[in-house]
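Hello again, I could really use a second opinion on something today. I've been staring at a protein lately and its backbone has me curious. Please have a think about how the structure follows from the sequence. I owe you a coffee for this, so here goes:
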Amino acid sequence: MAADLEEKTDRYENLLADGLAAAEPAVAPHSPLAAAAEDCLEMAEAYLDDGRHFREVDDPVNALAAFSYGHGWLDAGARIGLLDVPTEGHLFTV
């Protein structure tokens, strides 16, 4: 079971890191929604950092949760039109 948790945590960390690298704001920089797009990206980045911290202190359950929440911020931002993300591949289900 520990091996399954480790594999899943690795997969979700990579999914979030790759998703962050691929996501971009979909709104004009001076749009009132620009701050919301940046908030989605900043929250995803914060959860990536948190997950990595949890891994360092040997807390894989909270690491996996943090990586999952971070990707949720990206996915939500994409679904409501704040973020442009790839529509092909494994990173997003938009």
Remarks:
- The two ends are 31 Å apart (CA to CA).
- Helices lie at 2-22, 34-56, 60-79.
- The chain has a mean pLDDT of 93.
- The chain is about 70% helix and 5% strand.
